[in-house]
Design brief:
92% helix, 0% strand, mainly alpha, rod-shaped
């Protein structure tokens, strides 16, 4: 039979593990976002004289960058929620 203390400590460790995975995803997404920024800037530099091409590359680069920013914000919200749940469980374990 599980005691409440045992249940909450298992739940807390599961939340911390999931939070660590989300943090790793967030870091990888940040690196990828930086790569997209650099690649877009480099491609704009290469196609600077060809105006239809440069506008298409800039538009697609900005669109992809914005998508990655929104995805990163959502990951941060999930990670923050998991940290708050973990803190609540920690408080329950103290009492």
């Amino acid at each position: 039979m599980n005691t409440p203390s045992h249940f909450y400590s298992e739940e807390k460790s599961a939340l911390e593990k999931e939070s660590a995975q989300l943090k790793k995803k967030s870091i990888n997404l940040s690196i990828f976002r930086f790569g997209v920024f650099l690649a877009t800037g480099f491609l704009i530099y290469l196609t600077f004289g060809k105006y239809p091409d440069v506008f298409i590359i800039a538009f697609l680069g900005i669109l992809l960058f914005a998508f990655l920013v929104v995805k990163h914000i959502n990951l941060q919200k999930k990670e923050q929620l998991l940290r708050l749940k973990s803190a609540l469980i920690q408080q329950k374990l103290m009492f």
